[in-house]
Design brief:
- This protein is α+β, with helices and mostly antiparallel strands.
- It is globular, with a radius of gyration of 14 Å.
- The mean pLDDT is about 90.
Length: about 130
């Protein structure tokens, strides 16, 4: 774990820290080729410079966000925003379903939209692979 991500997790209240650390471990174990770093203030994993998954502490929960999640065949995520992102929210570490999370992570490695070049393409989002 990078020191920046560890600092982010350590800054959370006890229950939120447990959620963040659990999410970190499962994500990092299942996306071994991804680069992880703090991006726009929270932990995010990238494949070839494209954001894939991240988590952030919101007022009422810890949000797990998949940038291409609306295109996943696996159920359980809620659409978020006006592009292809989808989320899950957690208020207790016991709510994290490891099986679902692993399916979403597998989907995230194979189903990607080109967020890396969205500014260059003036808001046009194209599917990769």
């Amino acid at each position: 774990m990078t020191t920046d991500i560890q600092s982010y997790n350590n800054a959370q209240a006890a229950e939120d820290k447990a959620i963040c650390e659990t999410l970190y471990q499962i994500i990092d174990d299942n996306l071994p080729n991804a680069e992880s770093k703090i991006w726009h203030g929270h932990p995010v994993w990238f494949l070839d410079g494209n954001p894939i998954v991240g988590y952030a502490k919101l007022k009422s929960a810890v949000q797990l966000l998949f940038w291409s999640g609306q295109s996943f065949p696996s159920a359980g995520l809620t659409p978020e925003g006006s592009f292809k992102a989808a989320e899950a929210r957690y208020t207790d570490v016991g709510q994290i379903n490891t099986g679902d999370l692993k399916k979403w992570l597998t989907d995230s490695a194979t189903i990607q939209w080109d967020y890396k070049n969205i500014v260059k393409k003036r808001g046009l989002l194209e599917r990769l692979k």
